[in-house]
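Researcher: Predict the fold of Ankyrin repeat/KH domain protein (DUF1442).
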Amino acid sequence: MKLIWSPETASKAYIDTVKSCENLGTPGAAELVAAMAAGWNANLIVETWSEGETIAISVGLNIASRHTNGRHICIVPNARSQTAYLQAMTEQSCSNLPETIIMNEEEEELEHTMLTLQGIDFLVVDWDQKDFAANVLRNAVFGSRGAVVVCRSGYRRSTSCFSWTKAFSDRNVVRTVTLPVSGGLEIAHVAAARSSGKSDNNNKRKWIKHFDQRSGEEHVIRK
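Model: Structure tokens for Ankyrin repeat/KH domain protein (DUF1442) follow.
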């Protein structure tokens, strides 16, 4: 199964986000991200956020989760960011506040936390917090339908040594695009999981027969 686009749901989330974010000064970005998350019917939406970042995209993701009846989870690096995030979302009159998870950058704890978030359909990170974002990307566990990954401040990511292919070693990146809004929104579409994996490869292997004229024996070899 793959992610299926729903233009009607995307349109509803877009319009609602325009109304909610008209005073936040981020033209285009929040509405676009909300429409994508809702349009792809994301059941598990995950974002990263740190104190000092704008809240508009988070509001858009919250609106998208309402339209898809999905979960919206925000990963923050510390308690101060968690408090600032929840306060900002409350000020924007978000009816259902997202779940928040505090996650420091210790590798073992980070991996454990990300493993609890199985099946991410839509992931948003901010490259202004490069190390934090890169660690989340490398440890993300995507859903079987595939996923959409959005990198805020994408112009900075594109000039770094970070590679989508290396980050998602177990999945193919179908395509990427960078849009000129809010410091660059870099969007990557991660392919759906392969349903059969190794078994398909094994079925494609060929059997070769070899007849030994000296001994009269027939050998069957799998190539």
